[in-house]
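User: Show me an example of a complex going from sequences to structure tokens.

Assistant: Sure. Here are the input components:
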Amino acid sequence: MRDGITVAKLGIPSVALVTEDFWPQGDFVANSLGMPEAPRVRLPHPVAGTGMENMRAVAERVIPEIIAALEADS
Amino acid sequence: MNSMLSAKDEETALEELHRRGNTDGLPVVIPTRNRVERMVLASGMDADMVLGTMGPGNGVATVEKIAIAAVMAGCLPDYMPIVIAAVKGVIDPEFDLTEMQATTHCTAPLVIVNGPARINCGPVNCGFGIFGPGNRANASIGRALRLAMMNIGMGRPGSSDMALHGHPGKFTFCIAEDEEHSPFTPLHVARGFAPDQSVVTVVGAEAPHSVMFSGDADDKDNHRYLLELLAIGVANMATNNAVLGNGAATIVLNPEHAQILHAAGLSRQDIAQQLYTRCVQPVSEISRLNPGFAGRAVKDKMRHCFSSADQILVLMAGGSGLYSMVMPSWCAGAHKNAAVSVLVEADQFCEIPGL
């Protein structure tokens, strides 16, 4: 979330990928950095270490959401 | 003055502070205007003086807000110079407080006090049970820092403090070095301060892990066994330091173990250097057990577990006997979990009448 906002503040469209368990922290960071509406896409938790097949499936599922968020941001 | 809350009595006020998430779960002293003003007065500083911002919530740490945390934690006004120095330490950019509060790892700032403030602004316990209960200064100074991190820095479990388990040192984590009995140069002197200066060193640390060693004075390798065990304890293959290969460590030698190393002719710096040299792990093992963290390192190489000997904090404290304590660290963040030392400005302290 913090990285996404840092990039957004540089004027570059960004979307933060936040897993389910870290969604409340994403809200907290977005609020504390003054960008409560910073675009983010929800991923299942966990993603790391779940194997290439699963990560590919997750990526395919969220790609349209990421693109939609980027288009809305621009 | 911060916005004031009101309640019909202290019992109601306590429940309200619990409800608002302003406590660590234990009862706190209600920070009434009078109590906070006395604590500010003790600091010798202006209430609205800004020390910096505390992450991850970016709250502004004024002397008054720190005094509120100190009152709530149960501090005596005498402790304020140490509390202020500890807050200054964690808000130093080199400490990476935002990242440290937010990490999933179980790290907490350990406050180590050196110099005359151990007595004048305490006493801060440096003997039996330093990490345990029973000493007001240790308990309340560490707790004041935690409450400041929660209420100014806004580190709250599960939403901004993402430690998966935390550890008991996240309630309070404050010790002093037993300089009077230590055979070594005190920690703060080794870090560039004068012996008569008072210094707070903060370092992100896991909970203390015990290292048992009974020793045999007739064995010429006695001290080597102890060093070997300390190295195993602080950088075994399950630690972040071994896997990520960086960061600081804290080694709290008990007086008996300190004497064994001293008798072998080792200085504090020698011990740190020996541990730095000994704390290495084969990349092949990191690659086998935690492949995601092996990185691009060459597999037949050994990797140091710590940034440098200077980041291995060695001090003597606790009761005498079989056990020393070691604390690995998180070792991430931009500055790799560096320790930070801050001068305690006790000359600003103002004696509070009636206490």
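The lines above are the inputs; the final block is the predicted structure for all two components together. Residues 2-73 of chain A form one domain.
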